[in-house]
Every structure is written in structure tokens, then in C-alpha cells.
Amino acid sequence: MRTSALLVMFLLARSMLPQMRAPASEYQVKAAFLLNFTKFIEWPPRAFDDAKAPIAICLFGDDPFDGALNQLVEGEVVNGRKLVVQKIRHAPAAKTCQVVFVNKAEKEPSKILGGLGPGVLTVGEGEGFLRDGGMIAFVLENHRVRFDINQGAASNAELSLSSRLLSVAKTVAK
């Protein structure tokens, strides 16, 4: 009886292994950050077509999130606006995107950054992204995802960043 009880416990534990959460991948963490950034940004009213327009997170270039971002934002509402994810290949038209994520594989991020108007939060990867005019750059530090902020670039785009967001950034450039 004891052997059969152990066998049942072993089989139950083994069947639960696929359901146990694996450590979050780098891009799962970045997807969570992108979602949370939207909660700490104040956009100018003219960044949207109307009061019911969604907050669009646009992915410029290839999608490194492998669907994780889409799953994460599904059904999410921030400040009364639904969140949506779109893939783009060129600088978006005004009011199309409120957040633009530029994949680190993009060779010339300044091309898209220069074509964006006010009211668009730009997020990318690596310390060079801020030098190219980006607003938030993901950086890896001791195998952890952190981010730097270029507050001047955000202000120039008429975006207001919460002091709470600024306080958790690795560095903030004025």
C-alpha cells in the first residue's frame, strides 16, 4: 500500500511539471515592463483620435516577444483605454501608436525615431538607444532587465513620466 501511495504521488507530481512556471524569459520581463510603463505615462490628449481610442503598443521590426506581449495585454485597460499590440515596418502615422518598441536588431533606430511626432513613447534596447533619441532603454545588469530613461526626450514629445517610474529607473538623463 505504501508503495502504491508513493507511486501515485510521483505520478501526480510528474504530471504537474509542465504546469509549473519556468523562470521568465528576458522578453517576458520586457513585455511586463512595457505594459506597466503605460500606467505611469501621461499622454497629451492629441496623442489619441478620441477619448475611447486604445493605447497602441507598436513593435517596429521583428517581434522578439514571441506572442508574450499580445497575451499579456489582452483584456488590459489603462486609464479607461484598451491596450492593443500592432506590428509596424515604417514610422507610424500620427495617433496610430502611443508606444513604439524598437527591436535591438534594427540597425538604424534613429530612422524611425526621427519620424515620430509628439505623444509617442519610444522604448528600445541597449545604452545607445537613448543617444539615438529614444526615451526608455532596456539594459541587462547582472542578468536582470533594468531600464534607463531620457527624460528630456520624453518632455520634448510632450509626455509626462510619473515620479514613481523615474524612481525605479537605473539612470535618468535630464
UniProtKB/TrEMBL annotation:
The keyword Transmembrane applies. Keywords: Membrane, Signal, Transmembrane. Residues 1-21 form the signal peptide. This is Putative transmembrane protein. It comes from Solibacter usitatus (strain Ellin6076).
